Each structure stands twice: as C-alpha cells, then as structure tokens.
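Page 37, top half.
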Amino acid sequence: MRLEVSCQDRVGLAKDILIVLEKYGINLLAIDASNRGFLYFQFAEVSFDTLSALMPQIRKVESVHDVRTVSFMPSEQEHYALKTLLRTLPDSVFSLDVKGRIRIANESALMTLGMKEHEVVEEPLNHWVQGFNFGRWLSETQVLAQATRVQIGQNEYLAEMLPIYLPDGNDKSILAGAVVSLKSPARVGKQFNALQNQTPGFDNVLAVSDKMKEVLKQAKRMAQLDAPLLITGETGTGKELMAKACHDASMRREHPFIAINCAALPDSAAEEELFGFVRDGQIIKRGLFEEAKGGSVFLDEIAEMSKAAQVKLLRLLTEGSFRRIGGDEEVRADVRIICSSQKNLAELCQVGEFREDLYYRIHVLSFHLPSLRERKVDIIPLTEMFLEHYSQQLSSPMRRISPSCRDHLLTYAWPGNVRQLKNAVFRAVSMWDGSAELTVEQLKLPSYAEGFGYFDNQFEGTLDEAMRQFESSLLRRLYPAYPSTRQLAKKLGVSHTAIANKLREYKITKKR
C-alpha cells in the first residue's frame, strides 16, 4: 500500500503523519519526499475499512492538502527505470564502491564475466579485468574520468570510468564510487563511424581470413574503376553487400544504388522495369537504368535474366544507350553495371542458356566471394558480430558462445553461408531464454551433408548408391570445363575409356 500526500512544507509535518499511522498500528516500510510538495508512504496492505478511516485523519493534519493511494513510490520508479536501462544496455556496466568493489553489475557484464550476480557483488573488479587498477585510481587525491584499454581473458575492451560524487551541502563533494562501462572494439568502431557520418562501404565487411582479406583488397581497387563488375559466389556469401560497398567507395557514391533481383522479375515485365515504357509518345514509366542516372545498377543473379532483356542489356553495354519499350528515342545511360551470379556463367554459355557476348561484356572486372567453408577463420568473429548487433537491436543481454557451439559452428557445412549464419543468430537472440551462453540447440541448424543436401531424417540407401550420386554430380560439374574424355580423364587421373563409360552410364552429354 502506498499513499501520496500533497502538502505545504513545514517542520514536523512528517512526524505528525507518522503519529496518525502509529495510532492505526501501521508499520511503515518506506518514506519518500518530493521537492514539489509531496510526501509518499509505503506500508503493508490494510483493510478497506482501515484505509477509509485513516485517510480522513491524515487530511486533518495541519498543512496537508489531500491524500490518495498511488501505484508506486518515486524511488521505486527510479530504481526500476535504472534497472531496465542497465538490463537493455549492450555494454557491460559496473557500479563500484570507493574500494573498487562491485556493487551493481548489469546482465551484459555478468555474461561477459561468465559469473552469477551473487558471485561478483562485493568482489574487486580487478579479479576479472586486467590492465587498470581501479582501487588505486579511486584512492587518488583527485579522481578524474578515465578511458583505457583493458582485458578480460583474451578479449580486449575499451573501459570508460566515471567517478560518482555526492554533494555534502558545503559546496563540496564526497566520492561515493564509480561507474565503469566496457565496450568491444567492434562497438567502438561503429560509434566512431556514426560520429564521423562516414558511409559504411567496406567497413561493414568483416575479414579475418587471408582469403577474404585478399578479396577485399581486390574489391577496393575495382571499386575505383568505372567498368562493369561481376561478383560470383554461392548463395548467401554477401554479393549484394559487396556491390553496395563498391558503389559507396566509388566516385558515384552520391548518386543512387539500385539493386534488382533478376530471378524475381517475370519475363513479361523485365524489359519494362529495366528500360521503361512509352505509349503514344508519352513516357508511362521510367526504367530503373534511367532512375539510377549517375549511380550504379546491381543486377543480382544475372543468369536468371530473360533472353529479350539480355539482348537490350548487351546493347546498353555496347553503345551506352537504350530505347524504352514502345519508344524510338535513344536514352543515354550514365550508370555503372554491377552483376552477380551464384551459377557458372561460362558453363551456361556452353549449354546455350546465357549469351556468350553478354558474358564477356559484364565480365570486365570480377572477383569471387569464398564460401564460409573456405573462410572458417571468419565464422566465430561473424557470429560474435551478429550476436552483438541483434542483442543491441532486440535489447537483449550479450551472450558468450559455448565451447560446444563454437565447435559446431566450425564443423557445419553452411550451405546458406553468411546469410544462414546471420539468420540463425537472429533467431537465437529473438528467442532468448535467459541463458548466459549461445548453444547448439538455440541455433536450430538443420542437418546437412555436403554433396547431398539437408537431411531431416536418417539417410536411406546404400554406400554404393551414395558414391554413384556423388560421382555423377562431380562429372556433370567438370565436363563443361574439360569438354573431351581425354582432358577430363587427365584431370581426374583415370583412363579416357573409364571416363567415356561413366559419361555414357550417367547419360552426360556435351550440349552446345
């Protein structure tokens, strides 16, 4: 039960109200005072009859204007607001006493330390955080705000220390402790970029592995050139992210970047969407190449583009202009074309499913994005980056990755690559169950075998059937690149007769 008493301030007012409460045998639990003319009292629940008799008696006290029941005390509201704020902060936050001992630690801090609240309260922060002596800092004659690099185990953080001073009423202050917040290097980098108002560009691309670092090096050079660019790689490797990064790092960054999913464009509407539409001399619709004037157009999954649209795109790349559907006017296209494909375009050209002349036009500059299987060093840093991002976005405490989960992340095949990893982490964070660690069960990754795909149930079949399936798949992929039995036999280290028999057995022919 809580009462709010509106009143005029006077000496002895609180004492007079306490006498009334005592008369009714009420044990007071807490009292708050507000400088806006209010007193608050908290006590155990009383009966309706007691409350009905009590409130008029309080109103009779001198200087009391009114009294009413309220849901919470001001101190309670402040306490739970602070608690909610600390819980939702992605950074680790500690409140220390003047000896450098932990008084309060938010959930992110407890997860960073890997400890429970009762295990850290009243313990020195230096038990876990190395690189700065908090006790010595708080014992200095004048304690000033500090920022320095510290370590917890093998991980580095930026520590920001702010002293807490309380006024003592004589124009002086008393040191009551300090607040310490820890930020990861990735979070510090994001804040710096936001402060500088920089375009993300390649800053959003994480590269720890040598293979990915080399790709970034190539991409940064190609971004400065204005020639068509082809980005290849499996699904989910980040082709659109890299295309946008190349645009942001180019001279065209002040102009539009328009991404088009060719697989989602129906053949009947592809030309109209890309090049525009004219009826009776009036422009009904401007195409995306016209809308992107001065900027870049990203054609995602170019292999899915219709044959008619391929012809018009070839003309645009050759002559630098195009005609709207139904129109005769030549429109100059001041755009850079960036394409992507997860399919082997050279192979599609051989079987007649993609125009060979267009392939050479879009394949002026190119780089290949490796799959996660080829850049395993990046898997854990990517997981930590996504964990931090979604924990902040969903106001969820930052968690550690359990040892068993780390092993699983590194051994999983990742057919969906970075996109699959990102989605798995988002699902785990959004369904957070209060645990301190990210586990294999929370990721809910389906069973997957390379070369065979997903398995929801146990594999059915014999080893011989599985070997034949793999052998057939391998020959179908290699035959377009080694289009004679002798070349293919030399590549695989077997006789050309054996290869000819296998091609015949699996009905693999050379289509042109």
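Page 37, bottom half:
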Amino acid sequence: MSLLSGCGVLSSDKSDSEQKLAVGTTSTPSTLDPAGAWDGSWELYRNVFQTLVSYPNGSATPEPDAAEKCVFADSSNQVYTCTLRSGLTFSDGTKLDAAAVKYSIDRILAIDATGGPAGLLTSLDKVETNGDRKITFRLNKPDATFPFVLATPAMSLVSPAGYPKGKLRQGNTLTGSGPYNLQAYSPDSAAELVKNVKYKGFAERKNDAVTIRYFKDSDAMVTALKTGAIDATFRGLTAEQIVDLEGQPKEEELQVVEAVGAEIRYLVFNPKDRAARNPAVRQAIAQVVDRGALVDKVYKGTAEPLYSMVPSGVAGHTTSFFDAYGEPSVPKAQDILEEAGITEPVPLTIWFTSDRYGSSTAKEFAELKRQLDASGLFRITLKNRPWNSFQTGYQKGEFPVFGRGWAPDFPDPDNFVAPFVGEKNAVGTPYDTPEITASLLPQSRRESDRAAVSKQFERAQEILLKDVRLLPLWQGKLYVAASDDIAGTERALDPQTIMQVWQLHRKTSW
C-alpha cells in the first residue's frame, strides 16, 4: 500500500498477504490521554483503547467489549455491574483487571480536565470492585444512559502503571488494550497503528496496520486520496469535494459511501458578552439566519437545515426554531430589536475553528456574515483560530459567539441536550436550566425504553428555543471516500459516527 514518505514504519507494498492501509482525516487529536478529551480525539481512541462496552456491527445499543457481561443489577437503573473478560492485558504487559477499570474511571473525575469528559459522569457515585473481574458502578440517581456513557471512547481503559492519577499523561505515546497498538505518533501529522496481538474483544480486524494521516486542509487530503497516498478519507471533506468525487469517472477507481448522519453544527452565545447576553440580539439572529441558503450555497446537498438541537432521525426531534420563527425575515428581526430599544446595528464578533471541520467551515461563516450584514441589523466580524487554541478560548469565555460541531457521544436524544446545559458543559459557557437539569433529564433517565422519552426532550427543546443560547444550523450526512479496491467502508462507522478502521481492508483477487 502506498504511503507518503515520513511514514516509513509501514511498507508501501500492496500485496494481499499483509494488509496495510492509510486513512486521512482533518480530526487531529488534541491529546493522547482519554481523561483530557471530549472531542474528535475519540477517533483515535476507539482504535487503540478498549471500553467495557462498545458497538459491535449492527448494534445501536452498547454490548460487551473488554467486559464479558454488563447489566443493571436493580430495577431503578442505579446499580450497573460488569464482569471482565479473563486474561486481558495492556500493551505495557500489565493486567487489565477490575482495579485498572476503577482507576481509569476514578482518574477522569480526579483530574476533571478543562474540556475533558468528567461531565459525562455526573450520575456516578462510586466504583467498586469484587475480585479481579467484577466491577460495580453505583449511581447517585437513576440513569438508563449510563451504559451509553461507558461506551464512549472517553471511558477508555488505561494502565495504572502508565497514567498518573492526578494529571494528564504527556508525550506522544499511549498504553492501551484495543485492537491496535500505537507504534508511532507525530502530532498534527500521523498515527501509525499495528495490530495488537494480545487484544481480546469483539473487533474482527480485517487489516494488519493502519496509518492515520492528519490533514489541516481538505484539498491536500483529497489530493492524497486521488494519488493513492491514502486509501480512504473520513471527516473534513467539503461539499464540493464530495460532489466531485461522486462524479468521478469509473476509471478513477474511487468510491463514495453515504450514511445517515447525526452530526450537527450550531452557534453558541456567551452570556458574558454584552451583546450576546441580550435575548433580543439572539432572537434577531435566529430570525435572520437563512439555513436553506447556507446549506445550498456551502454544502450543496450534503447537509440539511436543522431547527432543533436534536437532529432528524433521533427520538424527540422537533422543528421548534422553524415553528417559532418561520422563514427568515429582516423586518421581524428589526421589530425584535426595536422592542428591546436597539436601533443601531449591533457589532458582534463570531469565532470559528480554522482546522477542525474541514475547508467548508470558512465558507459557512462567510455566508453567515453575509446574511447578517445584509440585514443592516448587525456588523459582523469573523475571527478564527486553530482547534487547540480555539478550544482554550471558548473554554475561557473569550468569544462572544462561536461555532461548534457535535458528533454524538451516543445515539440518544439525551446526548443532544445534556452536554450543553448546566454549570459544566461541552461548550464551556455555564447554562443554568433547572427544569432541564433537575426535572426533564432525571425523568428521562429513569426510562430504560429510550424510545419512550420523546415528551421530555420535546419540552427541553421548547426551553432551548426560548433562551436561544444555542442556535442549531444544519445536520450533516456522513461520507467515506475510498479507493475502489477498499472494502468495509459501509461498516466502518459506528453509532457514534466514529470510524472503526479495523473494518477496512483491500479486496482480494481470486
């Protein structure tokens, strides 16, 4: 398999006897330590770490991975028990036992990293062990979504010998027990994965090694695909590139696989900012933004307008913003502002990340600026930063308004509401919503049948609509582009929209 120079650990041999592949993405890890990331770093984690439960092919609910069995041991969904597979070890040779599981989960809470996943564990009271293989999670309240939380790569199991208890691990190495070992890592460049021969889990690896190439620019990634420097791409393709790849003549030997997606894009308003904290300003922006024009001009059929934080295809989805605001209207937006005593154009700076979601992001925010400026009601300044400094900025509350993307931690409406509310949340701006946090979410989490929680999430979206602290923009489709000789693309994405690279392999000739 051809790889770019600099990835010389892996051979460029295309023989069928040893499957070595290269995958491109714009989703660069922010850290190699799972206790520090609630972001696209999970793409790597899924392939090098294990979680107690995960998503085998065709499963939309968590099933055992490092665990042999996991169940709620009570009728109130407050005691969750797991029994580990026997004989598990980490790549450093140490045992993966119940004590290591407890250490891994306790460590996330102890570090409580800014931008980290501790916020996913708000329902956890304590972790107990019984012997080497049994773990009991005691929850402080009923939470039927807890197995989904354990299935996120944030809950990756780490070796106590390799990860300090009170701080994040530094450096360019990691110690896991997943389908692959990380053989080499160059930040912002590449991660070289080789099959973990000691792995015990559900993944059936159909290749021997994978190099994940990290690109800052979508054009460079597509060029690498077309020239054979990589075998497949995921995340970061622009709409124009998808249309172009879908229209390639057969002799180009490329394929594009489309899947139903639950990824969303939205704006976040920071209540610390003088303008953004004014409900009238937020409502006026909601009245002006033309989602249809945005997705037509920028995303060309690869996205759909989104009118609630819970996307289409997920239980509890509504069209609350369309129902409330209807078609974009400058006169209605002007009325909203004038009723609040605002008669001059509102100056506002909107931030976005320059290298996280692909090259279409800059075009998207240019279109948003065009729409808002054209209304005569706003004077918009656009600014951007690379992901790591962008993330630091919004967590410190530096940005008045900023754009974020969200790929679900797990396929449940809870995960499109709970992460964005409360004192500590995924967007770094405290959002006090007592009805949601103290009533609606607890009610829904008592319900094991997740198809029966629509009423609570419909009400939650009414509250989000009234506040307009979050403004949904669009919902994307998922695309994997690959060389025509690569199989497994249609099975490579799990319900969290994370690529399981072990599914990819070169078609064999007979």
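Margin note: The first helix runs from residue 42 to 48.
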